[in-house]
Design brief:
GO molecular function: serine-type endopeptidase activity
Mean pLDDT: 77
Number of strands: 16
Largest sheet: 6 strands, antiparallel, barrel
Strand order of the largest sheet: 11-12-13-16-15-14
CATH architecture: Beta Barrel
Strand content: 35-45%
Low-confidence stretches: 1-19, 30-45, 302-331
Distance between the termini: 21 Å
Organism: Holdemanella porci
Protein name: Trypsin-like serine protease
Family: Belongs to the peptidase S1C family.
CATH topology: Thrombin, subunit H
Order of helices and strands: EEHEHEEEHEEEHEEEEEEEHH
CATH class: Mainly Beta
Shape: globular
Number of helices: 6
GO biological process, one term: proteolysis
Radius of gyration: 20 Å
Amino acid sequence: MKNEMPKIPNSNHKLLKKGTKLVLSAATFGVVAAGSFQGVNYVVDNYNKQNTTVQSTNVLKTSSSTTSNVSAVAQNCMPSIVSITNVSVSDVQNYFSMYGNNSRSNPFTQQENTSVGSGVIINKKNGEIDILTNYHVIENAKTLTCTLADNTNVEATVKGVDENRDLAVISIKTKDLSEDTLKQIAIATIGDSDKLQVGEQVVAIGNALGYGQSVTTGIVSATNRSVSTSSDTDKSQSYIQTDAAINPGNSGGALLNMSGELIGINSAKLSDTDVEGMGYAIAISDVKDSIDTMLQGKDVSTSCNTPSSSYYQQNDEDHESDSVFPFDFWN
C-alpha cells in the first residue's frame, strides 16, 4: 500500500489505491415517510423539568478483568449516548423531464433521505440538554431526531457547528422529556485525551448501522495521527487511531478510556480489502475551545460571533445536490 496520506473526501474520491476509502461513519438509508417518529408525552410542568438534575457518568476504578472492565464502562456510559436520525431533502435529476411534453419542466425533483449517527450528552443548562456529534451527521438536516437511552424519541435543533473540525452541538428541550427519561440519561464525564498512551484500551459506543447502541473495544493504535480532512491536502486534523470497530452509524459516538471518560468522538475509518482495524476519533482535548464556542450557540469560523441559525440561512441553498451526505457509505 502506498504511503501517502489518506483523505476524508467531500465526495467519492479514491484513496491510497483503488477501493481504499476513509469513510465518515454515518449510515445512509433510503426514503422514509414523514411523521415516523412519535412525539413525547408531557408528564410534569416545564419548570420542574428544567430543574431536574441529570446525573453524570462516574469515573470508574477498573478491575484486572478486561471483560468486566468493558462491561462496567458500557453500563456506566451508555446513558450518555444518543442515536441521531437526520431527515434531509435533496434535489435529484428528473430524467423524464428531458423528453416529450415534460422537456421544459423542472429537471430536478426532490427526494427525502435519511441518515443515522450518534451523539454524546455533554451539558444540561437553561432547560436544554446539549449533545456533541459530528458535523457530517447533522449536515443539511430538515429534521433531527434523537433517540435516548430509554428509547424516547425527541426532536433536536442545531446549536452550533464547526465544519472544519467536523463537529456540531445540537440541543433538546427538557420540557419535551418525561421525568422518567431525565432519570435514565446522563452527562458524559470529559477526560484528557492528551494523557492517552499507545496500547491503552478504549471502548467505542455508537449507533452502528442504525441498529441501536452497540459496544466495541480495542486499543489506542496511535495518537496525533495527522489525516487530511478534505480534498485540500493543506488542511489536516489530528486524530486518535484505534482498532476498536468503527462502523457506519458510529459517527459522533463516544471513544472512552477505561475510567469511563470521554476522550474522543468517533468519526471515520479506513476501508480497504487490505486494511483492518483503522478507525479514527477526534481527540477531545484538541477541541475544547470549539465545543465551548458551540455551547454558546455560535458557529466556529474565522469570526466566532455568527449565530448558528445564520449559517443555515446563508448556506442552505448553496450546497450542490450531491453533497447532502459528504461521505461514502461503505457496506
